[in-house]
Design a protein that fits this description.
Blueprint lengths: L10 E5 L2 E4 H22 L9 H26 L2 H6 L14 H19 L3 H25 L26 H21 L8 H17 L18 H21 L12
Antiparallel strand pairs: 1-2
Length: 270
C-alpha cells in the first residue's frame, strides 16, 4: 500500500503582489539557521583565533552570492546546456527553479578562497565551520524539493512509496532520503567531529565532501534521472558523475589533514 501524496501549493504565502515560494523560503531558513550555527562555532574558540564571529558574519553575503550564482550556473552548464544556449535569457529566471548543489559548492569555494585571501585568514578553518553547517541548508533544500514534488525517485513497490502529482505509480521519496542522509546524518557526524579536541584543521571539510558524495551517489540509484540527460553511458547519472570528484577530493583532504599538512594550528571547538 502506497502513501497518498498531498499536493502542496508551491506558494508559501503572499502579501499583496509579493509572493514567497516554499523553495525560496527553504533557502532563507537554511541560510539563517546555518549562519547562526556558524557564529556559534566561531565564538567558541579563543578570541585570537580566526575566523572569528565578525569574519563569519561578513562572509554571509559572500556565501549567499556564491550559492545562488554558482548553483544557477551549475544547473545551466551541467544539466541543460543546450536549452540555455538556445534560450540564454531563461538562465536569469531563477524563480522558475533549477539549482545545482555541485555548482553552488564551487561558488562557495571560490567565495571562501577570495574572502580568506582578502581577510588573511585560514581558508581551511573557515571551510570547516561552513561545512559543519552546510547540512542544515541541505535538509531544508531537500524538503523543499519534496514539497514541490520534484526530483523524486524511481517507481517502487516498497510500502512507503508515494504517488507524486503527475505520476501514476508510487515512487521513492528520494528527496526525503537525501534530507535524512545529507541533512541529519551528515550534520551529526560533523557535529561530533568539529568538537573533538584531537581533530585537525581540514578534516571536517574533507569528511563533508566525502560524506555528501557517498550519500548522494547512493540515493542516485533510486532517484529518477534528469529527463533531458538520462543515464550517461546507460548506467551512471550526472549526479553520480559530479559526486566522484567530491569523494576522491574529500578523501584526499582528509588524508593530508590527518597528517597536519593543512595547518599546524589547533582549530577545535570546545
Amino acid at each position: 500500500m502506497d502513501f497518498s501524496y498531498f499536493q502542496f501549493d508551491p506558494v508559501a504565502f503572499s502579501l499583496g503582489p509579493f509572493v514567497v515560494r516554499w523553495y525560496a523560503l527553504a533557502y532563507m531558513v537554511g541560510f539563517m539557521a546555518g549562519w547562526k550555527y556558524c557564529l556559534r562555532l566561531a565564538s567558541r574558540g579563543a578570541e585570537t583565533v580566526r575566523p572569528n564571529p565578525d569574519d563569519v558574519d561578513d562572509f554571509l553575503t559572500w556565501a549567499v552570492i556564491g550559492v545562488l550564482v554558482g548553483g544557477r550556473l551549475g544547473y545551466v552548464f551541467f544539466y541543460q546546456p543546450a536549452f540555455y544556449a538556445s534560450e540564454p535569457m531563461e538562465a536569469f529566471k531563477i524563480w522558475k527553479g533549477g539549482m545545482s548543489f555541485h555548482g553552488g559548492l564551487l561558488g562557495v569555494a571560490v567565495a571562501m578562497l577570495t574572502f580568506s585571501k582578502v581577510r588573511k585568514i585560514s581558508v581551511w578553518r573557515l571551510s570547516d565551520i561552513i561545512c559543519a553547517a552546510a547540512p542544515i541548508g541541505l535538509f531544508f533544500g531537500r524538503m523543499a524539493n519534496f514539497v514541490n514534488a520534484e526530483l523524486y525517485g524511481k517507481v517502487t513497490t516498497l510500502p512507503w512509496g508515494i504517488r507524486f502529482p503527475g505520476t501514476t505509480e508510487p515512487r521513492h521519496p528520494s528527496q526525503v532520503y537525501e534530507a535524512i542522509l545529507e541533512g541529519f546524518v551528515l550534520f551529526f557526524i560533523l557535529f561530533f567531529l568539529i568538537r573533538s579536541p584531537k581533530i585537525k584543521t581540514g578534516v571536517v571539510t574533507g569528511v563533508f565532501l566525502l560524506g555528501y558524495g557517498v550519500f548522494r551517489a547512493l540515493v542516485e540509484f533510486v532517484r529518477e534521472p534528469d529527463v533531458q540527460i538520462g543515464l550517461v553511458g546507460g548506467f551512471i547519472s550526472m549526479g553520480q558523475i559530479l559526486c566522484l570528484p567530491m569523494i576522491f577530493g574529500g578523501a584526499t583532504v582528509v588524508h593530508f589533514a590527518m597528517q597536519g599538512k593543512l595547518s599546524n594550528a589547533k582549530k577545535h571547538v570546545e
